[in-house]
Every structure is written in structure tokens, then in C-alpha cells.
Specification:
Bound molecules: adenosine-5-diphosphoribose
Structural class: alpha/beta
CATH topology of the largest domain: Rossmann fold
Order of helices and strands: HEHEEHHHHEHEEEHEHHEHEHEH
CATH architecture of the largest domain: 3-Layer(aba) Sandwich
Radius of gyration: 19 Å
Strand content: 15-25%
Helix content: 40-55%
Strand order of the largest sheet: 5-4-1-9-10-11
Length: 278
């Protein structure tokens, strides 16, 4: 599936002990673990008779209007993520980190599902650019630091309501205000403190290769990483099931490598080609 030009590039990349990679992942890498992508049909959320898109429900505006409905959606998503297992794509990214080491490898993931870390990637080399579902923060906020996700929630389906006891668990232990998921919402801005915005861009500038996996290119920082890579002549490799903004743009640019297919099949092949030259 991977042609000889790309193989030669990957051999060359791996053989140099200086060359660095940034791997940027989106919901597509977790699709084979059974977690619905955001812009696929299962990403939608029904509240009453209204069907919300993630872009509508995952917002600070909606949290202020209907905090219980937003928490219900997140608790359901957390149940789905907690029950999922890393797939071959996650395992390949973890193997890539082990093979290349901290000096040469950075993972930037938009996914809050925790599957990369469970597959073996280290927090040290992983930028959680949209936050993560293992933490909450005070919505007021009385203090800035994220707190570990409180324990004691029953698994949720789309239909299950939040019990009164569970609602209490969602209050900030310091000031009693409601906590919020430690994630970046659609109507919020990236920053360095929570989402490692500057670090992600700096690592991209300093990289030789940017591998973008399973993301539609609808969010700001991934798009900036892609544009930075183009400006800085960083080699770009796209791994995606379907055509999207990135694939169309890269085709127009006339450079880079586009690997269409499932990340759980392509990434293990990429890693095994790199391994031949390590
Ligand atoms: N292998 C590779 N790519 C896949 C696979 C797969 N098995 N399955 C789906 N894809 C691709 C889809 O074709 C699509 O291009 O993954 C992409 C998923 O796109 P989105 O659902 O838009 O997810 P993502 O790009 O991660 O969303 C970005 O938006 O909703 C917010 O904050 C949320 O982090 C999320 C961000």
C-alpha cells in the first residue's frame, strides 16, 4: 500500500538520528476503537426533540444555558471512551515514540479519550491540545488547576439522567460552583497553559515530518500546525479514510504524502518501515 517513494523517505527519516516527527491525531484514529467521530452521524446529540451537533452542544454558551444537558453528553462520551480499547493505530503511535525517543518524537492529539496514553505514549511527549476527560476544572473558576475526574459515576447511555448524588460530585470541592470538563469547547480559544498551543507550533517548526491522522481539519490549532509545516518546508504525511480539507489542500500544493485508508492498518506499516532503518 505504501509506495516506494514514501518508503525511501521513511527509511531516510528513521536512519538519521536527528530527524524529528510530530504526529497530530484526531477522532479518526479512535474510530476503530468504536468511538464515534465528531462529524460522523453518531456524533450528534438529542436533547428533548432537538438534535444538536457537537459544535452546538460542546460550547461554553450551551454550558451556561443548560449545564446538565452538556454534562449528560460528556458523561455519556466518557463512558464510551472508558469502555473503549486502544487499536492498532494507537499501538503504532506508541511504538513510534519508543523507537524514536523523546528527542525525536512529539504527539499532539485532539482526542480527549485517553487511548494514546493507555496504548503507551507518555505524557512527557504528548500534547493534549483539546484537554482530556480524566480531569475537570472549576467553572467559576476559583482556581485554575484541573482536578482529577471525581469517582462514583454509574456508566451512562444516551438516555441516562444524572442522579442528585452524581450532580453533587460535579461541584467544585473548593468553592461549591459547578465543575466543567477539562476540554476546549468550540467557542473558546486555545492557550498554552491548558492546551499547549505555543509548544505545538514550536515543535512543528522544529520538526522534519508532520504526520496528520484522522482529522477533518475543522479546528484552529491543527490547521495552524499544517500551515506552519507548509511554510517551514516540513514534510507532511496525511493518513485519513476520506478526502478532507487537508487532503484537498495538499493536493493543490502538489507535495507531501497522502495515505488514504484506515489508520489502524496504515500506521503499523509506517512504523514497521521506519523500524527497518533504525
Ligand atoms: N482511519 C483514518 N481516518 C479516519 C478513520 C479511520 N479509521 N475513521 C474516520 N476517519 C477520518 C474521517 O474521514 C474524518 O476526516 O477522521 C476524520 C474525523 O474528523 P472529525 O470527526 O471532524 O474529528 P476531528 O477532526 O478530530 O475533530 C476535531 O473538533 O469536535 C471537535 O474538539 C473536537 O477534537 C475535536 C475536533
Amino acid at each position: 500500500m505504501i509506495n516506494s517513494e514514501i518508503k525511501a523517505y521513511l527509511h531516510d527519516f528513521a536512519a538519521s538520528d536527528q530527524k524529528k516527527v510530530v504526529v497530530l491525531t484526531g477522532a479518526g484514529i479512535s474510530a476503530e476503537s468504536g468511538i464515534p467521530t465528531f462529524r460522523g452521524s453518531e456524533g450528534y446529540w438529542q436533547a428533548g426533540s432537538i438534535n444538536y451537533k457537537p459544535q452546538e452542544i460542546g460550547t461554553l454558551k450551551m454550558f451556561k444555558q443548560s449545564p446538565k444537558e452538556v454534562w449528560k453528553w460528556f458523561l455519556f462520551r466518557k463512558t464510551v471512551c472508558d469502555n473503549a480499547q486502544p487499536n492498532a493505530g494507537h499501538v503504532a503511535v506508541a511504538e513510534m515514540e519508543k523507537m524514536l525517543g523523546s528527542a525525536r518524537f512529539t504527539l499532539a492529539t485532539q482526542n480527549v479519550d485517553g487511548l494514546h496514553l493507555r496504548a503507551g505514549n507518555t505524557l512527557r511527549n504528548t500534547l493534549l491540545i483539546h484537554g482530556d476527560l480524566t480531569h475537570v476544572r472549576c467553572s467559576r473558576p476559583c482556581r485554575k488547576e484541573p482536578m482529577p475526574f471525581p469517582k462514583g459515576f454509574a456508566p451512562k447511555t444516551r438516555e441516562t439522567d444524572i442522579s442528585d448524588e452524581e450532580w453533587e460530585l460535579l461541584k467544585c470541592p473548593h468553592c461549591g460552583a459547578l465543575t466543567r470538563p477539562h476540554v476546549l469547547w468550540f467557542d473558546e480559544y486555545y492557550n498554552e497553559e491548558y492546551y499547549k498551543y505555543n509548544t505545538a507550533l514550536t515543535r512543528t517548526v522544529n520538526a522534519d515530518l508532520l504526520i496528520i491522522v484522522g482529522t477533518s481539519g475543522a479546528t484552529n490549532l491543527p490547521m495552524s500546525m499544517y500551515n506552519t509545516a507548509l511554510d517551514e518546508d516540513v514534510q507532511i504525511m496525511l493518513v485519513n479514510l476520506d478526502e478532507n480539507l487537508f487532503t484537498r489542500s495538499l493536493k493543490l500544493q502538489g507535495g507531501g504524502f497522502i495515505l488514504m485508508g484506515k489508520s489502524g492498518e496504515i500506521l503499523p506499516e509506517v512504523v514497521s518501515i521506519m523500524r527497518e532503518s533504525i
